[in-house]
């Protein structure tokens, strides 16, 4: 699709959150809602990172341990654990994250293409951006955010690999 | 990429192809009726119209191959309709062939594939056209010239159909107007300004002039409210006018004229069923209006309505197209409403429920649910409609002769079920032609008519739809089936099998008895696929065969895929739903009733018989400390199509209820052993067990346990 490139237009809102010590970001347009952690209903015969399914206003939606899915240490569940429900390739899925950080505006020009980060699938991280990170009680400081491409985290594809 | 423009066109094309599908269905039905000897002007005209509108649309969308073919086909149909080509068996046969090619053309246009080779068929069609004079001269007009009906209106419709606009409808009403010199089925507007309309600046004459400008005229002025002159207040209105307007005017335009009329005025706009008697147009609302059309005259008029098909522009719109996903969404929301209703009733004491009239709400919800379900219901004809074409191909390929009888085509099933029975139906029909029906010679030798019969029937029985394919062929050759099953290692040579069990072997995976692998069936997948597809729908397949007399395959399908009658069971701290259709009985095991026969398998003794048993806690990998002993559990005897009766051990049974099925693949992917999930009254999710997939897992020999009917 052709898009008109104009300065100022190519800004995107990104929801940032942490997994361990790492800051991640997901394009806000993909987010359906953010909910508190609630123990999902476990499913038999699924990979460990699919934590189960949950009831999202009448739809049965899988809950994915995003950290496990990316090959990081599983997120411990605590009071600020939350689930980002997002559109993933025409479907919906919830992603367990450690802690929600902020909503930031990132200019497209400030996004660097991702170098090979050593994360399982290199295309899952679509880019890197430097943002000013606001933190309670301290001065704003710079932080690097890894922008995730949720469509690359296609759950179906992963299963096909496992079955093969 | 100019995305927006393409999308718009794609959408319109989508509608075109939907209409093609409908047109093809109509044409096929008509041609089949003609082949069955029901040749009437209406039927021929119906086929013609269907092909005509496919042609019109194909030109508009640039499907030139489709356009060219449908044009030639249409020419022939036109001559048939006009009577120049008699619709005898040979002609009907050619037209059926042409129809098949037309279907292929539509499919090719839709998929962007290569158009079918139609040269031979075009030649046949051209030959028909070339011979038409010869055929028509010796026997002038064998068919009645044109669809003549008692009103004599049809020729008008015919003429307009020939006009080359793709949808060929609009002008009809206008030409009727011309004929009658009066709006047929125009508008009747009754207008009575409120008493103080004029005080508010609502001058009725302005409204009436506006209506007259649109072609209206006053038919009647009701002066009954007019007081004697000395009581008359010239600033008040007393009249009620009846104004006739032509049918071609939009209701919205008429309403617009009344925009500035005082709100409590009488304004009544309705369509006339028939044209009123021609009333001389009155230029002004004169007080002394001649009394207008007497009611008696109107009665005379109504007795002579125009035939409905001659004025489709006037016909009220009967159907609307709705995106199926919108219906699904609606159904989903209704499901939510049902669930919310049960949450409410769980939380309220019975007395409080009555006080807030919860039962009434529940009943209403239920009615809404039933209504939405009926919106998704479609006649099974849609699935049956592709059978005749398939049979023609099969007859050509096998040299067998088959007559198709269909019964219960109007039986309604859920759209989702309908979409899924197509494949099983195809396999069943192929199987019947390939294995059931004998060759004409064999049939004659057996004292049967050379033509075989396949009876396709559908009926609703309770909450199930029964679809049956019955042939009058040779029946299942049980000795051969058995020999083949032993050869393939499906059963052991010394197995004792009932007739029914042998019949069911043909549904076993990898079974095929066709002596030659034909391109029709005999790949050994057909009946296996039928069974697994039907069981995946929550249905079952039954086979009944009498040697020498025929075989019938019966599919029993659920009415809907959206709601399931289930048993809620508990295992550890999770709840599951067991489809009630699988449940045979429940057993509370006593000590020693469950026996281990090998490290990986157990049996349960039930009235002297041993049934295989599975622990659900094994299937769902329940932690050791949460597992219960058999004596503290419940064993549910379930019946599965593939392995007969099996015990499934769970912790407790909670209750029985209808659940709304939510598919897992909507947001994830299908999971083996689960038929979906549902949301219970408290908002939690319960997984629906797929018994067949769950118990047919390693350690279960599919055909080992004998002595039970599948």
Summary?
The complex is a heterodimer of chains A (164) and B (710). Chain A is mostly beta strands and 164 residues long. Chain A has helices spanning 66-69, 155-163, and strands at 11-19, 22-27, 31-36, 50-56, 59-65, 82-88, 91-97, 99-107, 112-113, 125-133, 141-148.
Textual characterization of the structure:
The complex is a heterodimer of chains A (164) and B (710). Chain A has two helices and eleven strands, in the order βββββαββββββα. Chain A has helices at residues 66-69, 155-163, and strands spanning 11-19, 22-27, 31-36, 50-56, 59-65, 82-88, 91-97, 99-107, 112-113, 125-133, 141-148. Chain A is globular. With 710 residues, chain B is an alpha+beta fold. Chain B folds into five domains: 3-162, Up-down Bundle (Four Helix Bundle (Hemerythrin (Met), subunit A)), CATH 1.20.120; 178-302, Alpha-Beta Plaits (2-Layer Sandwich); 324-378; 385-558, Heat Shock Protein 90 (2-Layer Sandwich); 563-695, Beta Barrel (OB fold (Dihydrolipoamide Acetyltransferase, E2P)). Chain B has 22 helices and 22 strands.
At the fold tier of CATH, the topology name of chain A is: OB fold (Dihydrolipoamide Acetyltransferase, E2P)
Number of strands of chain B: 22
Helix segment count of chain A?
Answer: 2
Class based on secondary structure composition and strand pairing of chain A:
mainly beta
Task: Give keywords.
A: mainly beta, OB fold (Dihydrolipoamide Acetyltransferase, E2P), 6-stranded mixed beta sheet, 5-stranded mixed beta sheet, 8% helix, globular, B: 710 residues, alpha+beta, Four Helix Bundle (Hemerythrin (Met), subunit A), Alpha-Beta Plaits, 40% helix, 20% strand, disordered N terminus
Topology readout:
The complex is a heterodimer of chains A (164) and B (710).
Chain A: E1 11-19, E2 22-27, E3 31-36, E4 50-56, E5 59-65, H1 66-69, E6 82-88, E7 91-97, E8 99-107, E9 112-113, E10 125-133, E11 141-148, H2 155-163
Parallel strand pairs in A: 2-11, 5-7
Antiparallel strand pairs in A: 1-2, 1-8, 3-6, 4-5, 6-7, 9-10, 10-11
Chain B: H1 3-35, H2 41-60, H3 64-82, H4 89-111, H5 119-136, H6 154-162, H7 171-180, E1 187-192, H8 204-213, E2 217-222, E3 240-245, H9 251-257, E4 266-271, H10 295-302, H11 324-347, H12 350-355, H13 358-376, E5 377-379, H14 381-384, H15 387-398, E6 402-407, E7 412-414, H16 415-436, H17 440-445, E8 452-461, E9 464-471, H18 478-487, H19 499-505, H20 526-536, E10 540-546, E11 550-558, E12 563-571, E13 574-579, E14 583-587, E15 594-598, E16 601-606, E17 609-615, H21 616-619, E18 634-640, E19 644-650, E20 652-660, E21 674-679, E22 685-689, H22 691-695
Parallel strand pairs in B: 6-8, 13-22, 17-19
Antiparallel strand pairs in B: 1-3, 1-4, 2-3, 5-7, 8-9, 9-11, 10-11, 12-13, 12-20, 14-18, 15-16, 16-17, 18-19, 21-22
Helix pairs in contact in B: 1-2, 1-4, 2-3, 3-4, 3-5, 4-5, 11-13, 15-16, 16-20, 18-19
């Amino acid at each position: 699709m052709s898009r008109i490139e104009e300065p100022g237009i190519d800004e995107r809102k990104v929801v940032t959150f942490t997994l361990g010590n790492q800051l991640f970001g997901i394009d806000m347009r993909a987010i359906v809602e953010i909910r508190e952690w609630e123990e999902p209903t476990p499913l038999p015969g699924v990979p460990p990172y699919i934590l189960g399914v949950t009831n999202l206003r009448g739809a049965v939606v899988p809950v994915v341990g995003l950290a496990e899915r990316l090959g990081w240490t599983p997120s411990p569940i605590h009071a600020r654990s939350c689930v980002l429900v997002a559109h993933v390739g025409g479907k919906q899925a919830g992603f367990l994250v450690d802690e929600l950080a902020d909503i930031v505006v990132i200019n497209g020009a400030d996004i660097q293409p991702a170098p090979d980060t050593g994360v399982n699938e290199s295309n899952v991280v679509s880019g890197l951006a430097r943002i000013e990170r606001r933190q309670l009680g301290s001065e704003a400081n710079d932080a690097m955010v890894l922008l995730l491409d949720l469509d690359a985290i296609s759950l179906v594809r992963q299963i096909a690999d496992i079955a093969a | 990429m100019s995305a927006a423009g393409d999308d718009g066109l794609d959408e319109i094309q989508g509608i075109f192809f939907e209409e093609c599908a409908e047109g093809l269905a109509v044409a096929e039905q008509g041609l089949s009726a003609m082949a069955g000897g029901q040749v009437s002007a209406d039927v021929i005209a119906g086929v013609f119209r269907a092909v005509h509108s496919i042609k019109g649309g194909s030109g508009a969308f640039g499907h030139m191959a489709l356009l060219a073919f449908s044009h030639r086909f249409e020419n022939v149909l036109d001559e048939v309709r006009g009577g120049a080509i008699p619709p005898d068996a040979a002609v009907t046969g050619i037209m059926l062939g042409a129809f098949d090619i037309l279907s292929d053309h539509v499919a090719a246009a839709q998929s962007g594939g290569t158009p079918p080779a139609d040269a031979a068929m075009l030649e046949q069609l051209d030959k028909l056209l070339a011979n038409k004079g010869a055929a028509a001269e010796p026997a002038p007009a064998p068919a009645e010239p044109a669809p003549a009906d008692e009103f004599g209106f049809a020729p008008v419709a015919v003429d307009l159909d020939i006009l080359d606009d793709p949808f060929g409808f609009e002008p009809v009403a206008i030409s009727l107007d011309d004929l009658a010199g009066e709006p047929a089925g125009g508008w009747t507007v009754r207008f009575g300004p409120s008493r103080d309309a004029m005080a508010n600046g609502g001058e009725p004459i302005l409204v009436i002039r506006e209506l007259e400008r649109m072609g209206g005229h006053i038919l009647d002025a009701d002066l009954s409210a007019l007081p004697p002159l000395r009581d008359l207040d010239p600033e008040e209105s007393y009249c009620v006018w009846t104004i006739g307007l032509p049918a071609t005017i939009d209701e919205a335009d008429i309403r617009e004229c009344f925009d500035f009329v005082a709100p409590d005025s009488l304004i009544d706009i309705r369509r006339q069923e028939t044209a009123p008697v021609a009333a001389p147009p009155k230029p002004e609302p004169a007080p002394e209006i001649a009394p207008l059309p007497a009611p008696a005259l109107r009665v005379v008029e109504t007795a002579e309505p125009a035939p409905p098909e001659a004025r489709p522009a006037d016909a009220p719109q009967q159907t609307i197209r709705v995106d199926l996903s919108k219906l699904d969404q609606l159904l989903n929301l209704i499901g939510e409403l049902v669930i919310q209703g049960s949450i409410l009733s769980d939380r309220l004491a019975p007395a409080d429920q009555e006080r807030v009239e919860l039962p009434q709400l529940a009943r209403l919800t239920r009615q809404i649910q039933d209504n939405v379900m009926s919106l998704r219901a479609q006649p099974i004809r849609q699935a049956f409609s592709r059978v005749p074409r398939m049979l023609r191909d099969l007859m050509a390929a096998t040299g067998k002769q088959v007559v198709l009888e269909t019964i219960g085509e109007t039986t309604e099933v859920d759209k989702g079920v309908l979409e899924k029975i197509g494949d099983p139906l195809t396999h069943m029909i192929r199987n019947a032609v390939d294995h059931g029906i004998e060759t004409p010679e064999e049939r004659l030798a057996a004292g049967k008519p050379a033509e075989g019969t396949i009876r396709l029937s559908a009926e609703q029985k309770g909450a199930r739809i029964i679809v049956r394919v019955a042939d009058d062929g040779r029946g299942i050759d049980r000795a051969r089936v058995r020999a083949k099953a032993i050869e393939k290692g499906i059963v052991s040579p010394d197995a004792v099998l009932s007739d029914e069990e042998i019949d069911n072997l043909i549904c076993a995976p990898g079974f095929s008895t066709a002596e030659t692998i034909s391109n029709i069936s005999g790949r050994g997948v057909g009946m296996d696929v039928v069974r697994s597809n039907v069981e995946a729908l929550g249905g079952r397949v039954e086979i009944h065969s009498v040697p020498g007399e025929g075989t019938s395959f019966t599919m029993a399908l659920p009415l809907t895929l959206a709601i399931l009658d289930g048993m809620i069971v508990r295992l550890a701290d999770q709840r599951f739903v067991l489809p009630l259709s699988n449940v045979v009985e429940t057993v509370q095991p006593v000590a020693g009733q469950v026996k281990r026969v090998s490290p990986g398998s157990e049996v349960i003794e039930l009235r002297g018989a041993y049934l295989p048993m599975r622990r659900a806690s094994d299937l769902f990998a329940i932690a050791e400390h949460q597992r219960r002993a058999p004596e503290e559990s419940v064993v549910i005897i379930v019946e599965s199509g593939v392995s007969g009766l099996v015990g499934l051990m769970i912790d407790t049974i909670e209750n029985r209820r209808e659940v709304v099925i939510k598919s897992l693949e909507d947001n994830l992917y299908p999971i083996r052993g689960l038929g979906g999930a549902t949301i219970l009254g408290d908002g939690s999710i319960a997984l629906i067990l797929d018994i067949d997939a769950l118990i047919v897992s390693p350690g279960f020999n599919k055909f080992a346990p004998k002595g039970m009917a599948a």
